[in-house]
Sequence to fold (494 residues):
Amino acid sequence: MTTNNTAFADLMAWQRQTEALNFVAERLGWDQETMMPRGAAEQRGEEMAAMEGILHARRTDPRIGDWLEAAEAPDAAGAAALRLIARSYNRSCKVPADLAQELARVTSTAQGIWAEARARDDVAGFLPTLAEVVNLRRREAECLAAGGDLYDALMDDYEPGATAATIGAMFGRMRPRLVALREAVLGAARQPAALSGSFAAETQLRMARDLATAFGYDWSRGRIDIAVHPFSSGGWNDSRITTRVVETEPFNCFYSTIHEVGHSSYELGIDPDHALTPLGRGVSMGVHESQSRIYENQMGRGRAFTGWMFGEMRQRFGEFGITDADAFYGAVNRVQPGFIRTEADEVHYNLHIMMRFDLERALIRGDLQVKGLEAAWNDRFKADFGVAVDRPAHGMLQDVHWSVGLFGYFPTYTLGNVYAGCLWKALRAAVPDLEAGLARGDASAPTGWLRENLQRHGGLRPPAETIENACGFAPDEGPLLDYLEAKFGELYAL
Ligand code: ZN
Fold:
């Protein structure tokens, strides 16, 4: 006979191996984007599908049900671990193993097909693959939703507890203030000058490394490589980032790097006692994005830090047309209706997300077919941004997400911005000399506050509670919109 404590210990030992294998599977994905020879794509698809088969079998092992029934948690962290394991077990059991493996195989090769289609602006070449991915994810959602909303079932993977209804309502409240701000800024008499010129790739990369160091990135447990789409990967004692370099767009490289450092620092900042338990990872994509965004925007694009960056850039690149720190701050934060989400300014960014949210929800619910996606995208973009999409790579082919089946993921970006707005409000009240450190290129006070109040807890509390616990108030969109109106109102003399 097993005692309850044995059941808990057995379950956690099982979980440790599952979590370790998860890290291995994630590192295969990292390798695919950074090091893998192009000809290995098909083989990698098989490797990922094999790993997914093993992971799925482990996540649905019937012993987990028995252990969950018998286990008694020794403390609050144990109780949270049991809650997360039960959640994962119940979800995994609803998806047949062959469907899970099929999804892993198809999305792995679809990513390469998408990358080639984007390079050639070839929508027709991508549509059959996209249709297959949408179909598989819809089938998965049908297994998960049990008659409920298909999109909600998928979103729950990335942001537990969020629904299309609550997100849609929040977007509805945000949209009028964002549109009004966008119109005021674009019509303002004062318009900051853009950065121009060419900036050596090697020097950009060296500066990107120094920016990561300024934000406290732990190089003994991380590394930086080049990839098409910047991302962070891994956790515990191995969380890596990637960036990209374009000689005419140094801000792209610098702010992608700071963004990914935010993600990676969250993972590296989690209490090591939670390692290889379900608490040992960031709690949701929205909370994850709050960390990358507050590093990138509220801190990295703030007046204090950009003042330090201006001096650094002058030292490294010499004269580059911008002669003072205020003009540099304006160039960093210049508002412009561009095609590309990842390059969008803070005023436009959430409008890109709202558009994707509406389109992908229609795809998953069956209200929009993939053959109609390009026209739907282009019409919506023209209506929201006032410019016509000039080529598919700047339109529906720009993001990797749909090719890898990440439907329900996009709204977590705006949720992350909203959470970052709340955290910034709390952080400014808690750390009075915040700006002085940032003006010296030292982000240790704010990053320390975030580690102590949010990052170290990992998955201990559900997402919105994690933010509320750090801030001392329940999160909503108000602080983000107040911050945006104050910042851009001042910058554009509105
Ligand atoms: Zn991110």
User: Anything to note?
Assistant: Residues 164-491 form a domain with the Neurolysin; domain 3 fold (CATH 1.10.1370.30).
